[in-house]
Amino acid sequence: MTESAARTALQLQSTVKKEGTLELALARVALPTPGPEEVLVRVDASPINPSDLGLLFGSADMTTARVSGDATLPVVTASIPPELMGALAARLDQALPVGNEGAGVVVEAGESEAAQALLGQTVAILGGAMYAQYRCVPAGLCLRLPEGTTAAEGASCFVNPLTALGMVETMKREGHSALAHTAAASNLGQMLNKLCLADGIGLVNIVRKDSQVEMLRGLGAQHVCNSSLPSFMDDLTDALAATGATLGFDATGGGKLAGQILTCMEAAACRGTKDFSRYGSTVHKQVYIYGGLDRSPTILERSFGMAWGIGGWLLPPFLGKIGFEAAQALRERVAAEIKTTFASHYTREVSLAEMLQREAIAVYGRQATGEKYLVNPNKDVAPAAG
Amino acid sequence: MTESAARTALQLQSTVKKEGTLELALARVALPTPGPEEVLVRVDASPINPSDLGLLFGSADMTTARVSGDATLPVVTASIPPELMGALAARLDQALPVGNEGAGVVVEAGESEAAQALLGQTVAILGGAMYAQYRCVPAGLCLRLPEGTTAAEGASCFVNPLTALGMVETMKREGHSALAHTAAASNLGQMLNKLCLADGIGLVNIVRKDSQVEMLRGLGAQHVCNSSLPSFMDDLTDALAATGATLGFDATGGGKLAGQILTCMEAAACRGTKDFSRYGSTVHKQVYIYGGLDRSPTILERSFGMAWGIGGWLLPPFLGKIGFEAAQALRERVAAEIKTTFASHYTREVSLAEMLQREAIAVYGRQATGEKYLVNPNKDVAPAAG
Q: Whose C-alpha in A321, B12, B78, B258 is 20 to 30 A from the C-alpha of A253?
């Protein structure tokens, strides 16, 4: 056995067992030696995004979580509701690595010029399996961060920034001129607000609490509507009319909110028109559901004419659709503005082992606005064991 | 007053009165003399389509209909539920003509060559205001019917045939290869079935009754699923997998059906795949709602991944989007196949006065599959009064 084949490092793995339990554990996995076009990155920072939780928790009821093992190698076990097991058939008894994005330092590089150029650099990666001490990836997958940027600052270069940019890009490509956004007080929502302010794009922020209205107004937001108020539909119609927003992005998915946005867009479109049409306005109104914070059914009252659409929106196929060059331009803008427009804020930095403690799971698992954890897989552990 | 200004003919008019009642009446309106590019058509046949009923009934509760006046000039009055009056604001106290399409003979023509060429011809028109003895339209709006075609045979050249063709055209333009269709036993559904059989396109027919399954099978349909059976979801998944249909057209709009189609499309797309993705398959699944037979809310369980869309679909904007030449090609195909692929069947022919009898309203107002009325505005009445 060569030295490199014997090297191992910790990786978080999520397993759905066929008997109906989820197991989260830290495994020692072999560290590969980078091929000519590859680099080995020491992962120093990786955020826990809502989009990581589906793979991580595998539909388990995390209030049933029990932790065994010791403090450095904890094992979490939780029950999965039987009715949800059917949808998990394709991942049964496989130990799956987790963590969509992160950043770190290139500690080894293959022979190619592109790989060698990255040695010692701090890079961001959207590659999956980032909740691990090391990650070996093609050099072309690395986004080199500007001089003086830390891994923690660059950890969230992709999911939220590219989603915010993707929303604006979708708006432009589909012929709309302003946006509405739900769960607008989220990290992503604040980022979208900054982006729209920077680019002069009208944005209607939809939140559920007065404190979130105040927070967003404090960040310069012009239009913030509180869906808990009795005046919500009127407020939303006013804001949509003022901005001309005919495209919405909904993070919640369930309940009536997506349909209410369409209804208010239609009411805004009909203001000032005199001709009656039983098919409603000819203005196309679109809402994309990009998250599932509310798992209840989507309910559409269909009081918005016939020129409307609702659909799923997901970042990777969107980036695939616009093509490599257009996507790369978005990535480069993120790197250039990672400390300003696309800066993220975290409430706590945890190690891989700390991430598997019940108290931590209870906090980041709630997906509560304003609580965001950053994982540092090399916190409190020795570097790669030889 | 010149002779032509004094000529009048009957026209059905629908009025929503601000006190909350609907009034349907036959009015004597002045007959215009055609301009140079216009023709005057004696309307001999006009179908009552579901798409006519919204304008005709103005949301009134037709079980409250009372008929006054005499047998030749009846007046129907019905109550409109107060909560529906808001949406009717734009049509208050206006006597609106009704009837989307129809056919008849050109009895007068303007001086232009195009208009003169139509004199004496039987033509079909999609022009609105067809529930009238005469209709004056631009010559360019007339679809000349093949020699030997009666007005009754050509009365339904547009709404159903162009909708069926529009569904197939949408399928091709949006990259799908087969279709699913609800309320498939309808006149339109039977026409779509004939069209798909003729063109070799896979079609999944969704109906609610065993008798409708038998009827469609008798017409050669290969895939017919009965949504009333406990095995519906399995049956539908099998049929969608067999045809590869990833596009559905839903006439009902309300309830869970549109979402069930997406769920079964996703299940069909996942058959045989081994890789787990929490975002579901990457196959785009689309359902267009083109009618509102079920006015209850649309309920989406969202068990179909992220690559999906639902939206409204309406014929006129679709024809506008594909452009005049493409739309004209569809119209010409309809005229050529009006006695075969696009033949319609009617259960009764009524005069304008008979259309306003309670018994008739009760039948055609139900939008029941298999009941379709044809209006002959010149039945039982004298030609244009001088």
A: A321
Taking the C-alpha atoms of residue B78 and residue B70, their distance in angstroms, rounded to an integer, is 17
Residues of A in Cβ contact (< 8 Å) with B274? 90
Residues in A closer than 8 angstroms to B91, CB to CB, are 276
ipTM surpasses 0.90: no
Distance CA B27, CA B40 (A): 18
Taking a C-beta distance cutoff of 8 angstroms, is the pair A125, A103 a contact?
yes
Kindly tell me the sign of the dihedral angle through the C-alpha atoms of A317, A323, A326, A327.
Answer: positive
Sequence-distant (6+) residues with CB within 8 A of A105 are: A41, A42, A44, A120, A121, A122, A123, A151
Q: What is the 3-state secondary structure (H, E, C) of A308-367?
A: EEEEECCHHHHHHHHCHHHHHHHHHHHHHCCCCCCCCCCCEEECHHHHCCHHHHHHHCCC
B189 phi, psi to nearest 5 deg: -60, -40
A90's tokens: 């394709």
Instruction: Assess A314–B contact: CB distance below 8 Å, yes or no.
Output: yes
For B305, residues 6+ apart whose C-beta sits below 8 A from its C-beta are: A312, B266, B277, B279, B280, B281, B285
Question: What pLDDT, in 10s, does the model give residues A172-222?
Answer: 999 999 999 999 998 899 999 999 999 999 999 999 999 999 999 999 999
Q: Give me the phi and psi of B288, to 5 degrees please.
A: -105, 130
Beta bridge partners of B250: B289
C-alpha B5/C-alpha B33 separation (Å) is 8
Q: In B200-343, which ranges are continuous DSSP H helix?
A: 210-218, 232-243, 257-270, 315-322, 324-336
CA atoms within 13 A on the CB side of B94: 14
Q: CA of B79: how far to CAs of B19, B49, B87, in Å?
A: 9, 22, 15
Query: Quick one: A275 exposed, middle or buried, by C-beta within 10 A (0-12, 13-18, 19+)?
Result: exposed
The DSSP H or E segment spanning A238 is helix A232-243
Interstrand relation of B285-289 and A223-226 (parallel, antiparallel or unpaired): unpaired
Residue A71: exposure state from Cβ atoms within 10 A (0-12, 13-18, ≥19): exposed
Listed in sequence order, the DSSP H helices in chain B are: 3-6, 50-57, 113-116, 151-154, 159-173, 187-199, 210-218, 232-243, 257-270, 315-322, 324-336, 352-355, 358-364
Tens of pLDDT, residue by residue, chain B (386 residues): 344 446 999 999 999 999 999 999 999 999 999 999 999 999 999 999 988 998 999 999 999 999 999 888 999 999 999 988 988 888 999 999 999 999 999 999 999 999 999 999 999 999 999 999 999 999 999 999 999 999 999 999 999 999 999 999 999 999 999 999 999 998 899 999 999 999 999 999 999 999 999 999 999 999 999 999 999 999 999 999 999 999 999 999 999 999 999 999 999 998 877 666 767 888 999 999 998 888 899 999 998 999 999 999 999 899 999 999 999 999 999 999 999 999 998 999 999 999 999 999 999 988 766 688 999 999 987 655 54
The verdict on B308 touching A (C-beta cutoff 8 Å) is: yes
Q: Residue A302 half-sphere exposure, CB side, CA atoms within 13 Å?
A: 24
Q: Tell me the C-alpha distance between A8 and A11, whole Å.
A: 9
The pLDDT tens digits for A1-23 are 344 446 999 999 999 999 999 99
Q: CB-based contact (8 Å) between A301 and chain B? A: yes
Write out chain A residues lying below 8 Å of B272, CB-based: none
**Cβ atoms of residues A296 and A255 within 8 Å:** yes
- What is the gyration radius of the CA atoms in chain A, in angstroms? 22
Structure tokens at A177: 């001129």
